[in-house]
Amino acid sequence: MALRKCKSAVGLILIFSLMKLGLGDQFEPNQIHLALSRNPNELMVVWNTNGSIEGLVQWEKISDPQSRFQSVAISHAFVEHSSSKLQQYVHEAYMTDLDPAEAYKYRVGSKLVWSEWIECQPTAASNSTDWSPRLAVFGDLGLVNAQSIPRLLQDTKRGIYDAVLHVGDFAYDMYENSGRTGDLFMDMIAPIASRVPYMTCPGNHENKDNFFQYRNRFRMPSKNPKDLFYTFNLGPARFISLSTEVYYFVFNYGIVDIVAQWRWLDATLKAAMADRENHPWIIVFGHRPMYCSNLDHDDCKNHETLTRVGLPFFHWYGLEKLLYKYGVDLAIWAHEHSYERLWPVFDRKVYNGTTDPKDPYHNPQATVHVTSGSAGCRERTDLFENPEPWSAFRNSDYGYARLSPVNKTHLLWEQISDDQDGKVIDSIWIKKDKPEGFVETNEVLEVSSFE
Length: 451
What we know:
The chain is α+β, with helices and mostly antiparallel strands and 451 residues long. It is built from 9 helices and 25 strands. The strands form 6 sheets. Strands 14-15-16-17-21-18-22 form a 7-stranded mixed β-sheet, covered by helices on one side. A 6-stranded mixed β-sheet has the order 13-11-9-23-24-25, with no helix packed on it. A 4-stranded antiparallel β-sheet has the order 1-2-6-5. The protein is globular and about 65 Å long. Residues 366-427 form the Purple acid phosphatase C-terminal domain.
């Protein structure tokens, strides 16, 4: 017993000495953010340190401070690819057996230094389908001109979101300044991302070195950590995250990722269709849209958008036919620094709901596409040219969206203008009477792949 006390005293003296020397600073947690895990009632928490140390997370119910739990992080070195070779360490830990109805607080760190306690409500970790998730949705958020951040943080502190979808393009760009731009960006979003799961997909601004910065900074619930696609459930909705970028950097990184993602998406959507009684809403999100009417030369202006119809000439591995075949209800995009909502559309044709001509989103017969990419970045916002027949609403204000699959028959989508002091500038209800796909799909489709 005396020896054990002596060892404890020596350990405390060593820790105190390291802190006095300032060596504890290199172990101070930063860039803290949450994500959903692949298991219900569980949240993943990720943070960085400048030095190598065993990472720990502690959490407890706010209503019961005696209920403290702890788990050890999985850690890996993250060495910047620039000539500076700056090195930091990424720690990934899991808070398990969470009660979604309880409020928690948690902290991350090590035996040397801890973060402040952070409060979170793990509603998004619920395995129940009988609740109404509320999400903030946006893309194209930079370190400079991040106009929407103050209002998003205010919303988050008010507890109106259960999760965030960041639909590609981060920091502009995370690799710049030897990765310090990425560090500053991650610290900028941490007050939001440390409170609610911050779910992501890669954009074109993450492509450098085969998405090296993105892969190291964001850990999503994919089966393989190297994959840029994954799925998760929230309430009555199945969410599917894709990389549209594999279609645009094929000459850099090859066709393997396109094929792997397409096969996975086909199987995942097939499983989602079979599970529609539990999760009737199927929502896909990725960075580059299939359709847009902006005043620029982006691929979404073309009749044969790569993500929509597939690889040039052969039309292999296109995504739109898969979305239509399996009745994807909502497709969320960014990339264009503006907001655009479409009528239900497939193959550039409008398929409004059949119940009431004045209610086009009641039992729509094709996927509803929305683009919300004006959260704020150094490239400012984009303008529009003459609208296409499938374009229903457009706006170039800075802002972001709110999404709520309210129940198994009603889904609410809203666009918020930050320029207009948080005004809701667009709002639609997507409604469907039965948990099924589109009526005509089996008659018109032959999905194309090389296989």
